[in-house]
Specification:
heterotrimer; A alpha/beta (155); B mainly alpha (260); C alpha/beta (269); A: 155 residues; 2 domains; 26% helix; B: 260 residues; mainly alpha; binds adenosine-5'-diphosphate; binds magnesium ion
Chain lengths: 155, 260, 269
Amino acid sequence: MHISRSIEILVGFFVAMGFVAMFFLSMEVSNLGGLNGDEGYEVTASFENIGSLKVRAPVSIAGVKIGRVTAINFDSESFEALVTMQIESKYDQLPSDSSASILTAGLLGEQYIGLEAGGEDELLQQGSMLELTQSALVLEQIIGQFLFSSDSEDE
Amino acid sequence: MVGYLQGLGARSLGMFERLGRGAVFFINILLCIPSVLVRPRLLVAQLHSVGVLSFSLIVVAGLFVGMVLALQGFYTLSDFGAEGMLGVMVAASLVRELGPVVAALLFAGRAGSALTAEIGLMKATEQLSGMEMMAVDPVARIMAPRFLAGLLSMPILATLFSAVGILGGYFIGVGLLGIDEGGYWSQMQAKIDFNQDIMNGLIKSIVFGWVVTWIAVFEGYDAIPTSEGVSRATTRTVVHSAFAVLLLDFILTALMFGDI
Amino acid sequence: MTENKPLIKIRDVHFSRGSKLIFDGVNMDIQRGKVTAIMGPSGTGKTTLLKLIGGQLRPSKGSIEVDGRDVHKLRHAELYKLRKRMGMLFQSGALLTDISVFDNVAYPLREHTKLPETMIRHLVLMKLQAVGLRGARDLMPSELSGGMARRVALARAIALDPMMIMYDEPFTGQDPISMGVLVQLIKVLNDALGLSSIVVSHDVQETCAIADYVYLVSNGKVVDHGSPADLAQSESQWSQQFMQGMADGPVPFHYAAREYASDLLGVNE
Ligand SMILES: Nc1ncnc2c1ncn2[C@@H]1O[C@H](COP(=O)(O)OP(=O)(O)O)[C@@H](O)[C@H]1O
Ligand SMILES: [Mg+2]
């Protein structure tokens, strides 16, 4: 049975388009594109409360995304949350006394980690621990505090 | 009443019998797949008629579904000031659900019905019997290449559907509705996980490709060899494929995303 | 091999479709090198009989031996090996509609041999020449008339030089000229290639002109058999009716029904 060249070419094109589409989905659409493999270095920070922070949440500094959260664990000695984040290796000039806070994108948005650069000459590197942290703002607690303080004003 | 019960019993017995024959047929196809790999030309010809000829339909449908998703999503999300999430919404719906499911439904209508009609007509015109008498196994030469082509085409088509849909959403969201371009992509990248979303979507599309092509090829092979029989078989292919795809989608979704 | 041993031995074959009994103990011997005709009214199961011989259907009782081997006891691979030596011409021709005449005839050669393409070309043209359609090699099956399609199918059936060919109603629906051509071809091929032929038909005249031996089948049984000359002289009323094409006789003109008058009056039983 003879198959014409044009059919073979069309089939080749079809399969190639499938690969292009798959490549597009992996690199442009999903998180595979965000971090180039396992490059970068990991730092940790412990928080009293992480709110609804999730693994894969972005880590940014001055609004620029520089990495993402790779693991969230509970430290049973300090009763705090231990967050591991991966920072892309091109951002390797961060002072070691930088602070980390859990912020919310917009009113109802996702939670992410915002870093703020410190002043030390020493730099963050693989395995560093961020000492200065600020926990997530938990809406119920804020509302509770607000109610509590307005109650006490009334009296 | 007894007659009604008897009818019900007969019908369910008939259904199980058909299911059994379908399973035996599927095993026969599997046994014949090595013989297809030895003759890749058979497969190329079928990839053309099953995959390439569905290409334009899938691309156009994907584009429009993506654009509609963006339009509808925008009006809902903007109520919450969350337009930035549009990319995520479009991509997640497409990659997890709509890509595999809608592509499979379109595939059943476009390629599945054509497969059933072709094989059914080959049976009605004694071509299959003719092959058997020429000592050529029609399962190896006709069914197996078509089955394999369907199995391979479906993930390609579903992936294309999702990719084109995401681009369609981009044209509407960024081009027409003016949301931030960087946000469209970066939110998407932040939220869509390769293993959790893209791979699961791919697995779904492979399962759907398997079930739709299996139904289509079996219905053709099992058709009553008259014009009416073939037309009924073609209808059955589309209806049963649609049911099977929706049911399997529910099961797979529950298995894959159920624990979130 | 022993010349006088029959090529096909059919012994006490029973077969039914659902609840409908089609064969109820059929015995036949098909001799080598001869043209054997199987005749009977439409719907008696002539096609079914050929499919039983080809191993596509399985009898519920009885046996069919082809060239000394019981068709229904063979394993899949052996059956397929045997089928390479059995040609069958289907009523519709059964050509593969998506490939040309040439490729159709070449199909069994390409499937079963590793001959180089030039050799296949020679063989195909030879077979097409034998049926007078060498000029039609580039046509598609849809462009052929019914008679031409059957001749192409015949060329395909002889492509692997089989030991026998089964013809399923080769004359039905043919104009007198094509019919003459086919009658001629069957006879010539049988004698020139040393084949054994089985012709299933209900065209008495044409079939008797070339048949060496005839079986008449009706109601699941062989009703009569003998050479065409014998049958013309047969005392069996059934044979007389069939051979001469009379409307009424042992085979009633009327399908089984109740009394005409009561039917008309609408009397319920
Ligand atoms: N696939 C089938 N399923 C059920 N019944 C069939 C089938 N094929 C043929 N029959 C029945 O078997 C009988 C014999 O058919 P067939 O062998 O085609 O007769 P013939 O060739 O002598 O005209 C017919 O009564 C027909 O209705
Ligand atoms: Mg017939």
